[in-house]
Amino acid sequence: MTHLEPDRLADRALSIDDPLTAAEEKHLDSCAECRDELAELSRIAELGRNPERLAPQLVPTEAMWQSIQVQLVSQVTAPATTEPAAEPPPSSPTVTELPRRTPRPRSWLLVAAAAVVGLIIGAGVTTVVVRDRVEVTSSTSLEALPGQTGQGIAELVSDRGRPELRVQIDAPPTPDRYREVWLINTDGQRMYTLGVLPDDGRATYLLPPELAGQLQGFNIVDVSIEPYDGNPAHSRESQVRGTLPT
Amino acid sequence: MTQSFYARIIADPGRVRVISVVDDGRLEAEVVGDHTDWRTATEPELRVGFAQGDEACLQEVFRRSAPLIYTIAYRALGSSTDGEEITQEVFVSAWRARENYQAEKGSVSGWLIGIARHRIVDRQRARGRDLRLVQAVTKQTDVQIQPEALSTLIDRIVLTEEIGRLPHPRGTILHLAFWEGRSYPQIAEQLDLPLGTVKSHARRALLHLRTRLAEVTS
């Protein structure tokens, strides 16, 4: 018997109620190729079903694109040595020969990147750094609490010397309710609210000045789910939580 | 797979012209004119534009693929700073090494993911060195991700994106079956479609996802 049709293997992987015939079962028993294919389809179906699927895509910033342009300028302006394929990725053993056009005298990239560099020099910064000057002081992953799903990260950063907490979570939004970010003291008694977390799960908060130097025990980053009840207290329902290292 | 790629290029002769197809499967195609609007370009057109070194095309490739690369790097490394750096490195090195990109073998995004995979592993190794020092004093647990876990993570993120891109009703059917746990008869009733159609969409969708993942992982 020839190999099973992909459709039949897909049926099996999806548990579509259309049983294999005896002959098909027999082939499957004896054919490693079909079994491997079925295993891969089943793995994909399983991954697709996994509740951890909630991985909303993060949106790159404009600064990232500008930084790429700046980094490429050094290549564009470098002497005309062809870049020695610094990075041959695994899947590209041979070189595709494509007809190459003569480069335009002033390339778009060069112009655009020069504009970015000009902007930076104009701003009085001596080094070519496009990424905002943010240092991560410490960070923690945020894990879902029992009964919740989601995960994320909280980073304590110093943005030009100003202490901020940067939160990014991938967790389902909460219909009819909103989320709030807190710093809770390890004594379990005291907490600060930092503010509302937008639905996309990304936000940066200024810290109370007292905590600027050190967290003084307010190391627990907590994202709560809050009803629209006008009550400023913590709802006692948390979605994700993590503890910043002291 | 290769055949359908050519066919799509020929079908859009106004923007990308196929000059010839050489015997060993290499592609020779050219973007015609300087004013190609990459924002409306099809995926195969982007392949050709990228391979040919069209700089405006790179920006569009970034627009379409950077969210995927950034998400993978961020999730793998658990840090938005590292995620941003890796993303930038991937695009810079992909552009510099674009002569190695084979347009007929797969999408630009699949190629970028391959580069990202290496960069992430490198970064994790470098971190592991730092981490061992830290662990010596703090007994912190090893956060380094295993290679299989990285592959699964990439698969999962690519799958999420691909499922999100499936056209209606295929995407809806998969959504209901996978994420809402509905049976196929329930879905058929809910969408008012014949049961056979629902099943057929589901299996087509799964086979599509399999093709896409093979391209990314090969």
Q: Layout of helices and strands, plus pairs?
A:
The complex is a heterodimer of chains A (246) and B (218).
Chain A (H helix, E strand, L loop, with lengths): L5 H8 L8 H9 L1 H18 L12 H16 L30 H15 L11 E11 L6 E9 L2 E9 L6 E8 L6 E7 L4 E5 L13 E8 L10 E6 L3
Helix pairs in contact in A: 1-3, 4-5
Chain B lengths: L1 H9 L5 E6 L5 E5 L11 H10 L2 H23 L2 H17 L11 H31 L8 H19 L4 H10 L4 H8 L3 H23 L1
Antiparallel strand pairs in B: 1-2
Helix pairs in contact in B: 3-4, 3-5, 3-6, 4-5, 6-9, 7-9, 8-9
Provide keyphrases for this structure.
heterodimer, A: 246 residues, alpha+beta, 3 domains, eight-stranded antiparallel beta sheet, 5 helices, 8 strands, 27% helix, B: 218 residues, mainly alpha, Rna Polymerase Sigma Factor, Chain: A, Arc Repressor Mutant, subunit A, 2 domains, two-stranded antiparallel sheet, 9 helices, 2 strands, globular, disordered N terminus
Describe the 3D structure.
The complex is a heterodimer of chains A (246) and B (218). By secondary structure, chain A is α+β, with helices and mostly antiparallel strands. Chain A folds into 3 domains: 6-49, no CATH class; 55-74 and 105-131, no CATH class; 134-243, no CATH class. Helix content of chain A is 27%, strand content 26%. Chain A has an 8-stranded antiparallel β-sheet, with no helix packed on it. In chain A, strand 4 (177-184) and strand 5 (191-197) form a beta hairpin. The radius of gyration of chain A is 27 Å and the shape is elongated. The N and C termini of chain A lie far apart (65 Å). The model of chain A is unreliable at 76-106 and 118-132 (pLDDT under 50). The two termini of chain B are 15 Å apart. A two-stranded antiparallel sheet of chain B has the order 1-2. The model of chain B is unreliable at 1-14, 16-26 and 137-143 (pLDDT under 50). With 218 residues, chain B is mainly α. In chain B, strand 1 and strand 2 (27-31) form a beta hairpin. In chain B, helix 4 (80-96) packs across helix 5, helix 6 crosses helix 9 and helix 7 crosses helix 9. Chain B has 9 helices and 2 strands; from the N terminus they run H-E-E-H-H-H-H-H-H-H-H. The longest helix of chain B is centred in the middle third of the chain and has 31 residues, at 108-138. Chain B folds into 2 domains: 2-165, RNA polymerase sigma factor, region 2, helix turn helix motif (Rna Polymerase Sigma Factor, Chain: A, Orthogonal Bundle), CATH 1.10.1740; 166-218, Orthogonal Bundle (Arc Repressor Mutant, subunit A). Chains A and B meet through helix 1, helix 3, helix 4, strand 1 and strand 3 of A and strand 2, helix 3, helix 4, helix 5 and helix 6 of B.
